[in-house]
Amino acid sequence: MASVEQLHRRDGVNLVQLEADISSIRSGSSITSINLPDYVEHTAGVSRVGALSAEAVIRDYESAAKEIEAMGTELIDAAQKCEALTAQVHDAIAFMRETAAGYREEGRKIFQRIEECALFTEDVRKTCEQVKRRMTEVSFAPSSDGELVPQEPELTGIAAKVTMSEVR
């Protein structure tokens, strides 16, 4: 508040000196020598101090507007990176689904092979038992000419395909 009181105590602002100071800093002497944004123009008859003050303010606003636009550009870049990352994620998910489906198919094949082997092994075991039984329990039945003829039991599976000569 002391500074406000000091301003009131002064005799006044020397506008001529202020304009001279500003002119010495500025490269041109004409008000229109500074390029203004397209959306503003100087009003006819405005004082040099008013025009320079308005220019300073519009330059600050224009600078802020350009920074805001730059942030928008950065945001667009970030969004594009997110979209690219999202596409990569979708590709990765599709690859994972394909890989999981491949594992399931391979598991199904192995499952079937194991069960086929188990069935085959069981068939072989039964065949071996039948062949052993056939070798030890051959019964003899009378033939039409009076001789005893070996009677073979009815076999199934692989045992039905194996002959006694193959067993020996």
Would you mind describing this structure in some detail?
With 168 residues, this protein is mainly alpha-helical. The protein has four helices and two strands; from the N terminus they run αααββα. The chain has a two-stranded antiparallel sheet with strand order 1-2. 1% of the residues are buried.
Concise summary:
The protein is 67% helix and 5% strand.
SSE blueprint:
Blueprint (H helix, E strand, L loop, with lengths): L1 H8 L5 H11 L22 H89 L2 E4 L5 E4 L12 H4 L1
- How many beta strands in the DSSP annotation? 2
Oligomer: single chain
Query: Largest sheet, order of strands side by side?
Result: 1-2
Category by helix and strand content: mainly alpha
Low-confidence stretches: 1-9
Count of runs of 4 or more consecutive helical residues: 4
| Mean residue pLDDT | 80
Task: Give descriptors for this structure.
mainly alpha, two-stranded antiparallel ribbon, disordered N terminus, 4 helices, rod-shaped, 168 residues
